[in-house]
Amino acid sequence: MAESNSNLYENVIVELEEDIGIITLNRPMQSNSINRQLTSELWDALDRLEHNPNIKVVILTGSNQTFSAGADIKEMYEKISPFDTEPSEMWRAHLESLLKVSLKIWDLKKPVIAAVDGYALGGAADWVLSCDMAIASDTAKIGEPEIKFGAAPPTLMMPWIVGLRKAKELLFTGDIIDASEAYRIGIFNKVVPQSELLSEAIILAKKVTKVSPSALKITKATINKTFEMMNLKQSLEYNLEAGIAMFFLRKEEDFMEINRIIKEEGLKAFLKSMNS
Q1: Cα 21 vs. chain centroid, distance in angstroms?
Q2: CB 115 within 8 A of CB 140
Q3: Cα separations (Å) of 147 from 2, 197, 211, 246, 267?
Q4: Which residue among 63, 116, 153, 219 has its CA within the 20 to 30 Å range from the CA of 253?
Q5: How far is the CA of 186 from the CAs of 119, 131, 136, 172, 203, in angstroms?
Q6: Apex CA 67: angle with CA 33 and CA 44, to 5°?
Q7: pTM higher than 0.90, yes or no?
Q8: Longest C-alpha distance within the chain, in Å?
Q9: Could you give the CA distance from residue 89 to residue 148 in angstroms, rounded to a whole number?
Q10: For the purposes of burial, counting CB atoms within 10 Å of the CB of 22, is it exposed (0-12), middle (13-18) or buried (19 or more)?
Q11: Strand, helix or coil at 131?
Q12: Ramachandran angles phi, psi of 259, nearest 5°
């Protein structure tokens, strides 16, 4: 890499390779799970690359052979409970922070390519779905398992990417699917061997950089506007309100069991329990 801005952040690494900016989610001990700080740093990193005149394409990936296990459930359930004084506002802030990043990726004036290895779950899956293109390793898994513990996807991007029937199947069951199935239904543009993931993402990015930046900007905006005219953004805002309503459907014992698994058995055990 020609240049690195990794010293700016604790949970995100930013590297520059010629005219490509590479952002790496970097909480490897927590499976790159999304906490408040990572969300804030990622938004800022995207904004900096958007305003860097030397950068034409952005790649978003994760460290330690994992994109992200989704929201940091330990942090979330320690700070948010249905028995708090103002739980709806705390939950709203959590969902809004995830949606803010999804929309930043969607609206970014430069193409964003996701390079996905390992898990991309929940809010992290939404970020992948918000990217313009996505390449996966052959070990990648993606899904929105939130419904298994009574929650809604933070950003309801999936129906816009995979269509009505498949979106309902995945969101009703909370199933986590492998890279080949995700490629088949249009989530990933390409699946490559794990060892070639980043290099293949860079090859695609370099191909895109040969196109006029102004043409890319206009084309991305035009394609996105087509979906926005079908009320994509209004649908995402409605989903946020639905997600807040769903929060209050959860029972006290559900919270207690989630906390128990995470504290006693760890995040990996919790993820396994959701996929069983």
Answers
A1: 17
A2: no
A3: 43, 30, 41, 9, 17
A4: 153
A5: 17, 13, 12, 19, 20
A6: 70
A7: no
A8: 56
A9: 23
A10: buried
A11: coil
A12: -60, -40
Residue type at 61 in one-letter notation: T
Rg, the chain, Cα only: 18
- What share of the chain has pLDDT > 70, as a percent? 82
Query: For domain 3-274, is the CATH number 3.40.50.2000?
Result: no
Tens digit of pLDDT for each residue in 58-104? 999 999 999 999 988 767 666 655 555 566 677 788 889 999 999 99
Token pair belonging to 233: 């953004």
| C-alpha torsion sign, points 73, 76, 81, 82 | negative
Q: Quick one: pLDDT band at residue 259, thresholds 50, 70, 90? A: low
42-46 long-range contacts (CB < 8 A, ≥24 apart) are 42/12, 42/101, 43/100, 43/101, 43/104, 44/8, 44/9, 45/5, 45/8, 45/9, 45/12, 45/14, 46/101, 46/104, 46/105, 46/108, 46/112
What pLDDT does 36 receive?
92
Residues 144, 158: contact at Cβ < 8 Å?
yes
Q: Which residue has the higher pLDDT, 148 or 82?
A: 148
Supply 162's token pair. Answer: 């995979």
* CB neighbour list of residue 177: distance below 8 Å, 6 or more residues apart: 141, 142, 143, 170
